[in-house]
Design a protein that fits this description.
By secondary structure, the chain is an alpha+beta fold. The protein contains 5 helices and 8 strands; from the N terminus they run E-E-H-H-E-E-E-H-E-H-E-E-H. It has one domain: Aminopeptidase, CATH 3.40.630.30. The protein is globular, with a radius of gyration of 16 Å.
Amino acid sequence: MCQKSGRATSPWIEPVVLENETVRLVPLCMEHCEKLMEAAADGRLWELWYTTVPRPEAMAAEIERRLDLRAHGSMLPFTAVDRASGRVVGQTTYMNIDAANRRLEIGSTWYAAGAQRTAVNTACKLLLLTHAFEHLKCIAVEFRTSSKNERSRRAIERLGARLDGILRRHGFHTDGTVRDTVVYSIVASEWPQTRRLLERLQRR
């Protein structure tokens, strides 16, 4: 059972459990640390240069960082649990939360190698987008990734998100190379069509 910690989150967005027949998204807590270390070890995800996944010895510090951001209302991190096996398979996050303008980003997402190319990502995105548009009444949801992360870009485009633009020389990859960040979004008027698309994809 997760222990509550830190200050109250933004009144616009509170910790919540989201679930469907494929996956369960539960608010991140320190008790998930060991299972998240095991998930990250499946594929040694911290060695991927184009994304950022904490090494096992850094997982606790990363959880603390995310919980602090949650306490300040700028992030709501989730742990992803496969419903069939009960196994923790990764993380995903509401981040860059802008309560005043009812916008947020879905990001800082990673999955164990065994959960990649399965229904998990589609199921998670359907849960997160449904909650964002239908409960939080977001006007837009954003996605960002490295311009060189072709797998991530294809996955985002597969959701029906549209390209907003590229933030050139926006930062650095973990190997020190310069990163251009590609920005996508789905706006509220596009959500009904996107939801139908995700529901079809999930049934395949």
